[in-house]
Amino acid sequence: MKKKNILNLIKYYAEKNDSAFRNEAYEIAKYFDKNDDYQLSEYIMALLSDANTFSPQIDSNEKKFVKRVETSSNPLPLPNSIKDNIVGIINAIGHNAGVNKFLFEGPPGTGKTESAKQIARILERELFIVDFDSVIDSKLGQTSKNIASLFNEICSVSNPNKVIVLFDEIDAIAIDRINSNDLREMGRATSSVLKGLDTLDDNIILIATTNLYKSFDKALLRRFDAIIDFSNYTKEDLIEVGESILNELLLKFKFAGKNVRLFKKILNSLDVIPYPGELKNFIKTSIAFSDSSNEYDYLKKLYISIHKNEENMNPKYLNAKGFTVREIEILTGISKSQVSRELRE
């Protein structure tokens, strides 16, 4: 056993990261078992069992194509249309409704992967992600063989109702078989995916994500019990999501002031608001790089970062867009008196 195992154990305990703590304890138990200290190993496992925990159902160290990832407890603002679908999935799985394969489709940054992590956390299941880099092989026919081995790994889990498997960006191995521009090898790969989905244990939850829904093989789409569209964000949804992201970040950056009205005006001034993933990066970078002695400097930086045209920084232009003299002062750095003179002129 290495020092890092003990340090990780203490770290995960301090962070109240129960899943990581249990898995680290499991690794320590395995170490004692391999070194013939069976009593100590069994004692640790008994403690974990008494604590209503369970051993990892897939040992990533012994698997070639999957690896465990942490679930997420971070706030995930979603529009009601998507949120209702996620709640429906959780309820269906919780009540053993006979559905276990879900496809999340939509542009990057819309919350597909993060939603899968949240579902795993809420259902108290371990989340494993497919490593497509190890699945795809340049040798003729090998990718199809690897896909078959991948599904064998998934189906060999000891307790399938404690696992969720994530095929993040499944289009890497499953695209339209009848596309004339497609490689025949990838067509065979898609056929292997179809066979794997047909033989999947009903107790194993599989969630796949894709940005290329329109290029999907129709036969593949029919294998999923439900397809959730993550592109259903209205402009109002994105402004609300942006506000939620801002509130979360302001808790970490104490020097930044809160001006929700101006923040919403900045987002509303855009013809197209970025999806949450990109939007969060804009907001976070603007706050992190702002002048800590100026509580509203991040709003100026945010406006500049999302408006590339310098004309958009003109006081008259801003005023025409509904910004007040004070708000224009914040966004441009020009004093209110100077802004007032320019507007009068």
Automatic annotation (TrEMBL):
<dbReference type="InterPro" id="IPR003593">
    <property type="entry name" value="AAA+_ATPase"/>
</dbReference>
<protein>
    <submittedName>
        <fullName>AAA family ATPase</fullName>
    </submittedName>
</protein>
<dbReference type="Pfam" id="PF00004">
    <property type="entry name" value="AAA"/>
</dbReference>
<feature type="domain" description="AAA+ ATPase">
    <location>
        <begin position="98"/>
        <end position="234"/>
    </location>
</feature>
<dbReference type="InterPro" id="IPR001270">
    <property type="entry name" value="ClpA/B"/>
</dbReference>
<dbReference type="InterPro" id="IPR050221">
    <property type="entry name" value="26S_Proteasome_ATPase"/>
</dbReference>
<dbReference type="InterPro" id="IPR003959">
    <property type="entry name" value="ATPase_AAA_core"/>
</dbReference>
<dbReference type="GO" id="GO:0016887">
    <property type="term" value="F:ATP hydrolysis activity"/>
</dbReference>
<keyword id="KW-0067">ATP-binding</keyword>
<keyword id="KW-0547">Nucleotide-binding</keyword>
<comment type="similarity">
    <text>Belongs to the AAA ATPase family.</text>
</comment>
<dbReference type="GO" id="GO:0005524">
    <property type="term" value="F:ATP binding"/>
</dbReference>
<dbReference type="InterPro" id="IPR027417">
    <property type="entry name" value="P-loop_NTPase"/>
</dbReference>
